[in-house]
């Protein structure tokens, strides 16, 4: 593909003016908050997550003050329980994961040479969900109703309403709402990496940051949904009295530990790998060479993700597991050190082979690696079951956890902040303040947490608000408290540096002389981002491609204009980044914010048992989603194709597996199916724990085979009719397609009745025993999805009748068919399980 020069200055100036007008954010402080540009959303996201981190840090300082001396009474036991629960919950759910998502929403478009990610309104919805849920959970401490059961919320104490107050509901429902935000961001990031790369950027040319974010976002799809499944069971026990974790009625609290740690251990790598991604961008810049071992690093990242899902049981070594389980999970826990080591040694080798230019960001990288390696070594220690039996639930584990999280997440983020601040604001932070802050952070982290190894081995248990002087650990705890203040001083210096930043002069363009695409940004950058979408031939195009920056700036690549006055970017193929579509992105809109408020009301009102009001909120949420979809997706363009430069024309509308919307539906349903698998796991977990499962007796007899098979049959009928509607519509038989959609909706509604009839007519009483409770849960999950399927079928029918879907423009019916595929799989598993296995009749 030849690149022809665009030599008319007047033409370039006109193009730039049109781009500026299209991408200019709305005026007025409120309306700027409704802008859905990912750069804008990412900045809000980052500032909010940073604020939550500072608040959680204050809670930690209060805890350390309480533990500074033996038998202290600074705070009460109840207050201390709220402090450590909220501190851990905020750091994991409101800072670590949201922060990496926020930073990625800012960086990825620029790293990929894209004008924006494909669903900016989805990013905005995720942000508002995060903000509302975060304020709801965090604010609870000011009313003395904060959760107090630990960030892990182990039953049965937390599920019994007589032993735990409203805080458990606030934790469960508030963080469930935040998990919606995390999954939404994961969908945006996965589709962005796979479909928004610039022409020529094959998978093996992607920046390593993009690889890491792709891996981590996929991990979120498989890690968060099991926790969502656990949340469903948890709240149904608290609100309805269904005994999933009540041993007296056949339940088992160990199920919660499985579901929680299937999420909880990958979570550690979900927050660690993005920091390694920052290292992968910073190290080659200051080594002044390409990063060594690119394919090995990619394989190591994928291997780390894969192994992380086989480690969760090492959090449960003290629960009385079989020895074969102990051996397997112990070996897997030690094996994960191998891919981690590959990545670290690749960075060291790159620095060794390069011409290192020492800088503040690189100082943070090396220091955080040193802290993380110490945490990794103690991780190998606790992976050995006999040692874990001694150290479990002592301050040795607290030390290990914080070495990993501070070295693997927090300090790297500060390094990334100093590296990327000129990209975001056009101004550098102070090297002097940055290095001063680093040494406070480095010394403070080690002084705080290294003594905890010894206090733990000397017998100090976790999560205690005080300890006797006779234990002999007062000096160690005082050292940890002093270290926490040293660390807090480092954080304060970083905050001061940020506050002084607006007064500083603009930095030069690409001040670090980096080679990757994001540094095309100019200190006086416009809101439309990259001037023209480039053709990529190297992993470091600024270094390797001749006159690359000049050609981009002069609009000599692709999509250098916005003739129709729309926000646009290029969609490419997944493997080799061939251009396939010009996508028109959603502009500023209040709909994401209103939708998040409506959905948030459902969770918040349910917390206070205001069920009818919550139902109104659910109806409002449905109305907002339908309004959003009707007016903002699958728009029929005014013309078929659009030239993007150099004689290439791309369609403005595509559907099916090449379209970003299809991928978003598929990825969302993968997360949904993973949550469902958590519920099915619960069913078979209870089966393994009981000799008589299902039990017999009044209110306990299974639903039999008849009604589940009827429900399965009509569910599959609805699925087949949707497929038929897609195919007949494609062939131009619009009337037949509409009829099939109507019949499919009727079948989906019939599946609801047939699915509920089985447990209802058999008299299953979910409060009596865990068997009827888990059967009802599976049926409710499946019938609720059938109801959503019916809404989708009727919505698509309405789009067809309104002329918004045609045989040519058929994204709606193709996307809902993906949903129906997963719906059919859910129906097969549910009704076969409760109707045919094990011996239910």
From TrEMBL:
Segments passing through the bilayer: 42-63, 83-112, 124-146, 170-194, 206-228, 268-287, 294-314, 326-350, 362-385, 397-421, 433-454, 474-500, 585-604, 610-630, 662-686, 706-725, 737-761, 773-797, 818-837
Enzyme Commission (EC) number: 7.1.1.9
InterPro entries: Cyt_c_oxase-like_su1_dom, Cyt_c_oxase-like_su1_sf, Cyt_C_Oxase_1, Cyt_c_Oxase_su1_BS, Cyt_c_oxidase_su1_bac, Cyt_c_oxidase_su3-like_sf, Cyt_c_oxidase_su3_a-hlx
Enzyme class: translocase
Membrane topology annotation: Multi-pass membrane protein
Keyword tRNA-binding in record: no
Major subcellular site: membrane
Pathway assigned in UniProt: Energy metabolism; oxidative phosphorylation
Reactions accelerated catalytically: 4 Fe(II)-[cytochrome c] + O2 + 8 H(+)(in) = 4 Fe(III)-[cytochrome c] + 2 H2O + 4 H(+)(out)
Protein keywords: Cell membrane, Copper, Electron transport, Heme, Iron, Membrane, Metal-binding, Respiratory chain, Translocase, Transmembrane, Transmembrane helix, Transport
Top-level lineage group: Bacteria
Keyword rRNA processing carried by entry: no
Gene3D superfamilies named among the record's database cross-references: Cytochrome c oxidase, subunit III, four-helix bundle, Cytochrome c oxidase-like, subunit I domain
All copies of domain Cytochrome oxidase subunit I profile, residue ranges: 17-519
Cell location: Cell membrane
Record NCBIfam families: CtaD_CoxA
Family: Belongs to the heme-copper respiratory oxidase family.
PANTHER family: CYTOCHROME BO(3) UBIQUINOL OXIDASE SUBUNIT 1, CYTOCHROME C OXIDASE SUBUNIT 1
UniProt name for this protein: cytochrome-c oxidase
Record organism: Sphingomonas endophytica
């Amino acid at each position: 593909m030849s690149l022809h020069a665009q030599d008319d200055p007047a033409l370039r100036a006109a193009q730039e003016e049109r781009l500026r007008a299209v991408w200019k954010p709305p005026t007025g402080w409120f309306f700027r908050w409704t802008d859905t540009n990912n750069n804008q959303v990412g900045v809000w996201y980052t500032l909010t997550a940073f604020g939550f981190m500072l608040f959680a840090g204050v809670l930690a300082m209060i805890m350390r003050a309480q533990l500074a001396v033996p038998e202290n009474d600074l705070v009460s036991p109840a207050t201390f329980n709220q402090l450590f629960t909220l501190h851990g919950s905020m750091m994991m759910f409101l800072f670590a994961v949201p922060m990496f998502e926020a930073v990625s929403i800012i960086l990825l478009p620029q790293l990929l040479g894209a004008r924006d990610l494909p669903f900016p309104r989805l990013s905005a919805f995720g942000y508002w969900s995060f903000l509302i849920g975060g304020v709801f959970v965090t604010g609870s401490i000011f009313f003395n109703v904060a959760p107090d059961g630990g960030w892990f919320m182990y039953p049965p104490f937390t599920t019994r309403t007589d032993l735990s107050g409203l805080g458990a509901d606030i934790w469960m429902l508030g963080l469930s709402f935040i998990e919606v935000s995390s999954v939404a961001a994961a969908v945006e990031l996965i589709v962005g990496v796979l479909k928004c790369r610039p022409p020529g950027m094959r998978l093996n040319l992607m920046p390593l940051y993009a690889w890491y974010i792709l891996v981590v976002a996929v991990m979120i799809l498989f890690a968060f949904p099991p926790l969502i499944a656990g949340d469903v069971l948890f709240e149904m026990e608290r609100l309805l009295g269904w005994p999933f974790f009540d041993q007296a009625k056949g339940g088992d609290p160990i199920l919660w530990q499985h579901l929680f740690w299937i999420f909880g251990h990958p979570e550690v790598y979900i927050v660690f790998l993005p920091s390694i991604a920052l290292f992968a961008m910073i190290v080659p810049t200051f080594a002044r060479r390409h990063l060594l071992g690119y394919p090995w690093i990619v394989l190591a990242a994928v291997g780390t993700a894969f192994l992380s899902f086989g480690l969760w049981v090492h959090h449960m070594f003290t629960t009385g597991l079989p020895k074969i389980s102990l051996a397997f999970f112990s070996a897997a826990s030690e094996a994960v050190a191998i891919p981690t080591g590959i990545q670290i040694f690749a960075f060291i080798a790159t620095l060794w082979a390069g011409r290192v230019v020492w800088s503040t960001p690189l100082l943070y990288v090396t220091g955080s690696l040193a802290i993380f390696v110490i945490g990794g070594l103690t991780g190998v220690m606790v992976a050995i079951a006999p040692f874990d039996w001694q150290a479990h639930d002592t301050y040795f584990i607290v030390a290990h956890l914080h070495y990993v999280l501070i070295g693997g997440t927090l300090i790297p983020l500060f390094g990334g902040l100093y590296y990327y601040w000129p990209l975001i604001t056009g101004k550098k932070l102070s090297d002097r303040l940055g290095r001063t802050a680093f040494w406070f952070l480095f010394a403070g982290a080690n002084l705080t947490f290294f003594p905890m190894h010894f206090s733990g081995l000397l017998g100090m248990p976790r999560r205690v608000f005080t300890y006797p002087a006779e234990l002999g650990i007062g000096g160690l705890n005082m050292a940890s408290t002093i270290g926490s203040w040293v660390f807090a001083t480092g954080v304060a210096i970083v905050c001061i540096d940020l506050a002084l930043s607006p007064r500083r002069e603009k930095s030069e363009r690409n001040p670090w002389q980096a080679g990757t695409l994001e540094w095309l940004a100019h200190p006086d950058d416009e809101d439309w981002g990259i001037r023209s979408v480039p053709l990529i031939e190297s992993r470091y195009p600024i270094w390797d491609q001749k006159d690359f920056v000049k050609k981009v700036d002069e609009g000599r690549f692709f999509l250098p204009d916005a003739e129709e006055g729309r926000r646009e970017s290029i969609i490419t193929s997944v493997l080799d980044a061939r251009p396939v579509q010009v996508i028109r992105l959603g502009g500023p809109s209040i709909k994401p914010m209103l939708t998040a408020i409506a959905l948030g009301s459902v969770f918040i009102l349910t917390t206070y048992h205001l069920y009818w009001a919550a139902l109104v909120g659910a109806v409002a949420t449905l109305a907002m989603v339908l309004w959003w979809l009707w007016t903002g997706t699958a728009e029929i363009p005014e013309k078929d194709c659009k030239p993007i430069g150099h004689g290439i024309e791309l369609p403005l509308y595509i559907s099916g597996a090449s379209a970003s919307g299809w991928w978003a539906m598929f990825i969302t349903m993968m997360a949904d199916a993973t949550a469902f698998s958590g519920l099915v796991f619960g069913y078979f977990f209870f089966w393994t724990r009981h000799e008589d499962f299902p039990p017999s007796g009044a209110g306990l007899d299974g639903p039999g085979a008849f009604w589940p098979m009827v429900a399965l049959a009509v569910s599959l009928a609805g699925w087949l009719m949707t497929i038929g509607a897609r195919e007949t519509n494609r062939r131009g038989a619009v009337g037949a397609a509409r009829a099939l959609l109507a019949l499919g909706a009727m079948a989906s509604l019939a599946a609801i009745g047939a699915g509920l009839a089985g447990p209802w007519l058999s008299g299953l009483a979910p409060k009596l025993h865990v068997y009827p409770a888990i059967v009802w849960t599976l049926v409710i999950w499946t019938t609720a999805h059938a109801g959503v399927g019916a809404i989708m079928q009727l919505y698509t029918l309405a789009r067809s009748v309104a002329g918004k879907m045609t045989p040519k423009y058929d994204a709606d019916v193709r996307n809902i068919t993906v949903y129906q595929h997963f719906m059919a799989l859910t129906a097969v598993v549910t009704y076969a399980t409760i109707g045919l296995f094990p011996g239910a009749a």
